[in-house]
Amino acid sequence: MTEAPKKVVLAYSGGLDTSIILKWLQTEYGCEVITFTADLGQGEELEPARAKAEMLGIPAENIHIEDLREEFVRDYVFPMFRANALYEGQYLLGTSIARPLISKRLVELAQAHGADAVAHGATGKGNDQVRFELSAYALDPSIKVIAPWREWDLTSRTRLIEFAEQNQIPIAKDKRGEAPFSVDANLLHTSSEGKALENPAEEAPEYVYQRTVNPEDAPDTPEHIEVSFERGDAVAINGQPMSPATILTALNEYGRKHGIGRLDFVENRFVGMKSRGIYETPGGTILLEAHRGIEQITLDSGSGHLKDSLMPRYAELIYNGFWFSPEREMLQALIDKSQEYVSGTVRLKLYKGSVSCVGRWSEMSLYSEAHVTFEDDAGAYDQKDAAGFIRLNALRLKLIGNRNARVK
User: Fold this and answer.
1) 279 a known binding residue?
2) How far apart are CA 285 and CA 87, in angstroms?
3) Which of 74, 116, 157, 182 is catalytic?
4) What is the DSSP string of 116-159?
5) Is 12 assigned to a binding site?
6) Are the C-beta atoms of 72 and 101 separated by less than 8 Å?
7) What reaction does this catalyse (predicted)?
C-alpha cells in the first residue's frame, strides 16, 4: 500500500491472530480501526469479541457484531444449493460461500464510516485472501485492502506471541504452542486444516471432528424425515415451516446425530497448491440429497442435464472468489429459472453416515406411471414409435460406419 490508510474496517473474530492484526494496524499505520464480527452460525459466543476490541482501545461505536445467519443461508447458501454445487465433485463450499457476505458488510461499513480501507486475516498461501479481495473490489473498485500476513514480519508463531505479549494482548494458554490444526466454522460447515492434518497419508484423528458423531457410533435404527421445497429452496421439515437458517440448523442436528457429512479431501487451491482438509457439512449433505431428490421428478432432462453440465463451472467460480462476477450472476439466473417448478416433498433415510432419498412427490411432478409401467398402459405410449426414433438417431452412425469401412 503506497499511502497509509486513515481509517480501516477489520474483519475481526476476537481471536489471537485478528487481535494482533488490530494492534498492528494501530501501531504500523496509526490509523483508526473499526471492527466487524459476523455471526454466521459458527457456534461460538461472540460478545467476548466486543470486550476484547474495547480492551484494545476501540470505542463502542466502532465495534460491530451482527447476526447474519438468515441472510447467509437465504441469499448465499440456498442459491448455491439450487445449483447442487460441488467443488471437484465433493466439497460443498462451506468456507467459500461465507466470504462474499463478510466482504459485502466490510465494504458497507467502510462506506458508512468513511473508511478508506478494509483488512482481513487471511494468509498469503490460501484461497480466502482471494475471495475477500475479489469481492471487495467488485463492490467498491476504489477500496484499499490490507492483508497483514502479506506485509508484516511476524512470520512465525513465536514472533506473533512476542508481539502479543509486548502489546498486552491476552493469550490463551493453549495458544502458546503450535495449534494442532486450524478451524473455520459457520452454519453450513466446519473446515479443519494444517499441522496434524498436513500429511494426507495419515488418517485424521477422531478428535478433529466437531459436528458429527462417529458414524460407527450413530444410532442402529434409521430415521426418516421429510423436507419440503418451493422453487428450489427448502421451506419445511416434517411439515413444519421454518426460516432458511432454522432449517439448516435443524438439518445439522439430524446430520450430527447420524454421523452424516464427513469429508477427508485433498483439493486444488486457486493459488496453485494442493491442501488437505477435513470438512463436516451435516445439514448441507442432507439438503443436497433432498434437493436432487425433488429435482428428479420436477426437472425435465434437458434442463437438468444442462444444469449439471454447468455446475462444475459455477462451483469453481464460488471456490475461486467470483461470487460477485457477472458470469456467476448469469449462471445464477439460468439456475434460478430452472427451479421454477422444483416444489414438493422428499422423504429421506438417515443411517450411520449416509442419507438417501427414499420417496418424493409433487404437484409439479413430470413422472408418469402410465408411460413407464410394465403393465398395460392403455395407449399412453406406442412402442412402435421407438423404431423410427432409433432409425433417425442411427443414421449418423451408419454413415460414419460406411465411410470408415470404405476408406480402410
Assistant:
1) yes
2) 14
3) 182
4) SEEE----TTSSHHHHHHHHHHHH-TT-EEE-GGGT-S--SHHH
5) yes
6) yes
7) L-citrulline + L-aspartate + ATP = 2-(N(omega)-L-arginino)succinate + AMP + diphosphate + H(+)
pLDDT digits (tens, 9 = 90+) for 277-296: 999 999 999 999 999 999 99
15 is in an annotated binding site: yes
Query: Distance between CA 84 and CA 291 in Å, rounded?
Result: 8
Structural domain includes residue 383: no
Q: For the domain that residue 243 is a member of, what is the CATH number?
A: 3.90.1260.10
pLDDT tens track for 237-261:
999 999 999 999 999 999 999 999 9
Instruction: Consult the annotation and say whether 404 binds a ligand.
Output: no
Q: Tell whether 325 is in a known binding site.
A: no
pLDDT tens digits, one per residue of 334-374 = 999 999 999 999 999 999 999 999 999 999 999 988 787 77
User: Look-up: residue for cell 458508512?
Assistant: 112
| Domain of residue 36, residue span | 7-68+97-178
- The active-site residue out of 39, 128, 140, 233 is 128
For the chain, how long is the longest CA-to-CA vector? 86
pTM over 0.85: yes
75 is catalytic: no
Residue 350 known to bind ligand: no
142 annotated active-site:
no
Q: Which of 149, 178, 207 corresponds to the end of one domain?
A: 178
> Which one of the listed residues 69, 82, 99, 211 is annotated catalytic?
99
- What is the number of other CB atoms lying within 10 angstroms of the CB of residue 97? 26
Residues 106 and 209 in one domain: no
Residue 47 within a domain: yes
- Whether 313 sits among the annotated catalytic residues: the reply is no
Domain count, the chain: 2
Q: Is 399 exposed, middle or buried (0-12, 13-18, 19+ CB in 10 A)?
A: exposed
182 is known as an active-site residue: yes
